[in-house]
Amino acid sequence: MLKTLSYKINRWRLKRNSQRNFLIYCSVFVGFMGGLAAVALKFLVHLMEELSRNISSHLYYHIAYVFLPAIGILGTVLYQHLINRDKIEKGIGKVLINIKKNRSNIKVNNIYSHLITSSLTIGFGGSAGLEAPIVCTGTAIGSNVGKFFKLTPYEKTVLLAAGCSAGIAAVFNSPIAGVLFSLEILIGEITIPTFIPLLIASATGVVVSKLLYSGQLFHLVTEGWAMNALPFYVLLGILSGWIAIYISKVGGKLEGGILKKQNRYVRAVGGGVILGLIIAVFPQLFGEGYHYLTEILNGNINVLKEESFFANWLSEPLIMLLFIGALVFTKIIAAGITIGAGGNGGTFAPTVFTGAFLGLFVAYGVNQTGLIHLNTVNFIAVGMAGALAGVLHAPLTAIFLIAEITGGYVLFIPLMIVSAMSYIISRYSSPHNMYWSQLIHHNNIHPGQDYGMLNSIMLDSIINRKYTPVDKQMPVGEFYQVLAKTDANIFPVLKEDGSLEGVVLIDDIRRRLFNKDIADENIADIMIEPPAIIDYDQPASSVMDTFDAIDVWQLPVVKDEVFIGFISKSALLSKYRAVIIEQHKASDLFA
């Protein structure tokens, strides 16, 4: 029924709308749906957080924090295993894999699965953020709208990014940051034709969010910055770069899984209890942590004494400073345990939290010396941007996100200085952000439009299946007659089961062809082992790397160990050129 409906709608819209205009209409719809998803996610998480806090408030010393995260993570794992059947694709890295290797196709279950699992994880105290789940939800919406209307891979990628923009924008009420996040993290380049659908979707998402869920993360207007504070912003930039490296390494390692030798349910319960014990000591790590972040942004640093075992000691400035420093380092550990134990969430919010408390640490520490008075709120806001820029390698997203959600437009200079310094230091440590580093090392997927366009090429379309097989027992004199009937310069030598035994390259034997002695030899004497063999399912980017590495122009292709044809470098380059031309035409919305 859906296929018939899709077919009829596509026939109707192609008669009345150009493909490019239709992409704009789709971006409005994707933005609307992304906004609804963000509203639903925020509502569910905050509802469960209130339930968790009410439970905790009735128990001695909030002991419920020890077991609540385990309940949430266990519920997430149960849903993933028994109901979703492990079809959910968690994390921004999975989105990037689908863009690069799966022609921007994302399974439809990801539209709703992340809303359920992340609200269970974070609502019951999991120390992670909503941003990765809403990115996965928004991209799934965009991808499936594109699939329904049979759009091209490029157009699906645009809609996928539009869904991401709408989700991020609706969660933070920050339309520009939503667009920049998609461009810097998902697409990897900024072009005007791509920018327009994302901008429309982002604005639509924010409008939906404001209409249905007017709650704002932070209610703050920051003050102007002072010149005498500039050296301390530089210090904050350096520390932000170092802390970004720490977040990427520690968070990435923990997210890879904890208690790996145990089954998923033991991991969920064990990891949840470990997380609960950490939260019992540091209640500020419960959930996203935005409650405490909002309070310190409003100048209420005493909020850190709430629910804490150290409430009496925190009146001492030195103890308070050490406590703030401990929060800087433990938040990402708690986030890594949350995800590594099987919960669903992201490191975006923990990164914001860590950066904020790093800024508080610098400003509070300097102010205690009495040498100078720093505006604590400004340093908290700028610290958030510094940590984000270093972890995501996305300084524009960091600058505009913090400027939009804190009203800190007067802080553009400190934001730029700290974000740039953090980005440079983090980039010096690793050329790629934490998402791409894992994909490069574990999946052999690289950022960049060239890899994306290469991998949009299906090898099947450029395999030359017109070949002349030869038997290794064939005399070379008889092989001359085969040469006379074909223009080929490479011949496969096959076994009885169709597998490849070797190849005969005319270039290798050209000088020997007129030697009388060679006519008495067999093909087995002149065949060679190919320098490389291409697998049918190998991505085109990997094939191109192989061609470049061994400097040849033709290679054999096998499928399930059976030879099926040859692929030439010239055919791959010609197809690549055609893809570039096609994508440039598709990206021009006004052509």
From TrEMBL:
One of its GO terms (cellular component) is chloride channel complex. Its main location: membrane. InterPro entries: CBS_dom, CBS_dom_sf, Cl-channel_core, ClC, ClC-type_chloride_channel. The chain crosses the membrane at residues 21-47, 59-79, 157-183, 195-213, 225-245, 265-286, 318-341, 347-367, 379-403, 409-426. It comes from the Bacteria. Keywords: CBS domain, Chloride, Chloride channel, Ion channel, Ion transport, Membrane, Transmembrane, Transmembrane helix, Transport. It is a multi-pass membrane protein. Residues 463-521, 527-587 form the CBS domain. It is found in: Membrane. One of its GO terms (molecular function) is chloride channel activity. This is Chloride channel protein. It comes from Mucilaginibacter rubeus. The lineage of its organism: Bacteria, Pseudomonadati, Bacteroidota, Sphingobacteriia, Sphingobacteriales.
